[in-house]
Amino acid sequence: xxxxxxxxxxxxxxxxxxxxxxxxxxxxxxxxxxxxxxxxxxxxxxxxxxxxxxxxxxxxxxxxxxxxxxxxxxxxxxxxxxxxxxxxxxxxxxxxxxxxxxxxxxxxxxxxxxxxxxxxxxxxxxxxxxxxxxxxxxxxxxxxxxxxxxxxxxxxxxxxxxxxxxxxxxxxxxxxxxxxxxxxxxxxxxxxxxxxxxxxxxxxxxxxxxxxxxxxxxxxxxxxxxxxxxxxxxxxxxxxxxxxxxxxxxxxxxxxxxxxxxxxxxxxxxxxxxxxxxxxxxxxxxxxxxxxxxxxxxxxxxxxxxxxxxxxxxxxxxxxxxxxxxxxxxxxxxxxxxxxxxxxxxxxxxxxxxxxxxxxxxxxxxxxxxxxxxxxxxxxxxxxxxxxxxxxxxxxxxxxxxxxxxxxxxxxxxxxxxxxxxxxxxxxxxxxxxxxxxxxxxxxxxxxxxxxxxxxxxxxxxxxxxxxxxxxxxxxxxxxxxxxxxxxxxxxxx
Length: 494
Ligand code: AMP
Fold this sequence. Notes:
It is a single chain. By secondary structure, the chain is α/β, with parallel strands linked by helices. Among the domains are: 2-134, Rossmann fold; 392-488, GMP Synthetase, Chain A, domain 3, CATH 3.30.300. It contains 15 helices and 26 strands. The strands form 6 sheets. A 9-stranded mixed sheet has the order 2-1-10-9-11-12-13-14-15. Strands 16, 17, 19, 20 and 21 form a 5-stranded antiparallel sheet that branches. The chain has a 4-stranded parallel sheet with strand order 4-3-5-6, with helices on both faces. Helix 3 links the parallel strand 3 (47-51) and strand 4. The termini are far apart. The structure holds adenosine monophosphate.
């Protein structure tokens, strides 16, 4: 925020309502801070939950909370009521801030949890407050993890964590004030908040915020705007490719040419299928830069901005981040090719799960954060094998990576999308189950799939259960929810 004052009249944000400079942003944030503080001088790390659509107003509220000394707890507008109630119950905010469009949804919830309620519209006419000095080691934000394996946990991030995470990416991806990004990601998740919103604002760049992802609108921005960067999750690239496929040849030429003007396109938050990377390269000329990160630690591994971006790999540790792979006894694995758990330490690492000291304690070993992700280093680059709890399938004494099997299955001509899970089995421990969306007009039987897979995979990795679906269940970030897929296998399958 201090840096924003230096960027002053530069264009900070574009949204559906207008264009705003850094000075506009600071003024709007101060008004929010003033409303939050009322007669207090400092919120003293009170939690402030807020639900505001992706827009200039969202950022004004986030920065206003920070200026007033509060902890920002963003709520996801598309989450169902029980999930929002869960966050409010867990974070126990002192105040809930709501855009008027969410008033009916949030006012009763705030009341039933004895929290104050503030509409963003109330901040418009307030005077300049005197602001507290915010301690950089103090808590700044609580983000709720998607909870693929357990109830969501509140990940506490300090101002210092966020600053370190931003600086790492500014260095690695060479953000400058001349950058211009279009923002299409949810704003309750680290990818949308740190990588695509706070990085450009730190650099003095312009962030153009779309209310939600819409493939046609994004292509329109690629074609009709002077964007320099784009960042998204793999499913978004899949949708952009589908939209390109539908366009006329003339339009396709224009769309592809527009992408050539961007300097960087990044994918992360889930494994980027090699087939998607290759198709995107074929239509835009860009080799997507794939990186790996997590809410608790920000971004830690990345393919290089300059240098080889290797398909199927997430690159090497980012500057200032310590990363290692350890075996089950906690020993660092020094040799290449042997899988283990990714552990991380450094100023980017979060200090605690909100209100869960025991869970926090178990998440660290000798100062290293245990990610729960398995990986292997090959020719100097990390390859993610998946989350140990859901993606590492233990079948007949073997440990196999669901991500590796998915990568192979995607090369089958009749498979459009797939997700592999372990299906509980008395004899094998787990069996390899493949949930598949077939290509339009194609059919697929388990026998055909197994016969084909013999040429691609070791016998113990070949699926023995097949489920044909029209859609894969996904969360608000577009990540496949494997717990739901596992449950689907409890019903009839092939
Ligand atoms: P979240 O905290 O919601 O960002 O989820 C973090 C998890 O997403 C990580 O622990 C990984 O399991 C997964 N993830 C993030 N980036 C990648 C990637 N490039 N490839 C594979 N998995 C990823």
